[in-house]
Write a structure and sequence with these properties.
Strand content: 15-25%
Mean pLDDT: 94
Order of helices and strands: HHHHHEHEHEHEHEEEHEEH
Distance between the termini: 47 Å
Low-confidence stretches: none
Radius of gyration: 19 Å
Structural class: alpha/beta
Length: 295
């Protein structure tokens, strides 16, 4: 679809959905769940295989229950992301809260004008998690993204993520941007989603959810290069349409840790986040498509 057609037809449709109340969005989400799970069966084989490999001790009945919970949650997330187009700050803060620990952690670095590397996974509503900083704190958030293949949706998502003034930067331009911010003495919270699948060569390898897993070491490299503290940002789903964020300091002195330790720490934190609520992670992702090369 061309840019003009996208702006004429798709954007108004998304805004018309966004202004709907949450109860109506959830009705639409439930209908979408029936279509996605029972009619199209979108990536059901991938989801079930991921669950079997991650939880080898659980029965098929338990795994199917998690799978259905996941698809219901996944459909909720789709409409909740669209809701970000028009949601007010007060309404957002009602639906997305921070624990006292999270508030203390973020305010600690904000008050000290200290840049920090924040790592999170595709848990809960990760798009809400990525934008939440802009609704709660004055310190600049620098969100790192990978461009989408569809240019229209890429532009749409960039505008959505930066709606409240966030600094959205592609991975290839990140180092240059951080150097500029540092030279200008501008503290920032760097937002990274670190559970995507990296190329196997050069990745940090560990055991994650009972499987040999490559992990992006970008967060670790950034922390070491700039000597920035690292925090893990976790999200819990309280009920439909309501989430809570926590934040844990993994290290304030990254260069004092052994190589690989930062990557291990945020991977373990992500794993704990998933184990607490298995259905809120993005199980459709082909996370384990690479195998470790044995020399």
């Amino acid at each position: 679809m061309g840019k003009i057609a996208f702006n004429i037809f798709v954007i108004p449709l998304l805004y018309s959905i966004s202004i709907l109340p949450f109860w109506l969005l959830q009705l639409k989400s439930s209908a979408l769940y029936v279509l996605v799970y029972y009619v199209t069966g979108y990536r059901k084989k991938v989801v079930m295989q991921n669950l079997r490999n991650s939880f080898p001790g659980r029965s098929e009945e338990e795994l199917k229950k998690i799978s259905k919970q996941f698809y219901k949650h996944f459909c909720d997330v789709i409409f909740e992301i669209i809701k970000l187009l028009t949601i007010s700050p007060d309404k957002f803060r009602k639906h997305f809260t921070l624990t006292e620990d999270a508030l203390k952690v973020f305010r600690y670095f904000e008050n000290n004008k200290q840049s920090v590397v924040g790592v999170m996974g595709h848990c809960g509503n990760w798009e809400w998690g990525a934008i939440a900083h802009q609704f709660y704190f004055k310190q600049l958030i620098t969100g790192v993204y990978h461009p989408l293949s569809n240019k229209n949706f890429d532009t749409f998502m960039l505008n959505l993520r930066g709606r409240m003034g966030g600094n959205i930067v592609s991975m290839k331009n990140l180092y240059r941007e951080l150097l500029t911010l540092k030279q200008n003495k501008t503290a920032t919270t760097i937002g990274l989603i670190a559970d995507q699948t990296p190329p196997p060569e050069g990745a940090y390898w560990t055991t994650f959810l009972n499987q040999d897993t490559p992990v992006f070491n970008g967060a670790e490299k950034l922390a070491r290069k700039f000597n920035y503290p690292v925090i893990y940002v976790g999200i819990k789903k309280l009920k439909r349409g309501y989430y809570q964020m926590n934040a844990t300091i993994l290290t304030e002195k990254p260069n004092e840790l052994a190589e690989g330790q930062i990557s291990e720490l945020h991977t373990r934190a992500l794993e704990k986040n998933i184990l607490e609520q298995p259905y809120i992670w993005l199980w459709t992702h082909k996370r384990w498509k690479h195998k470790r090369t044995v020399i």
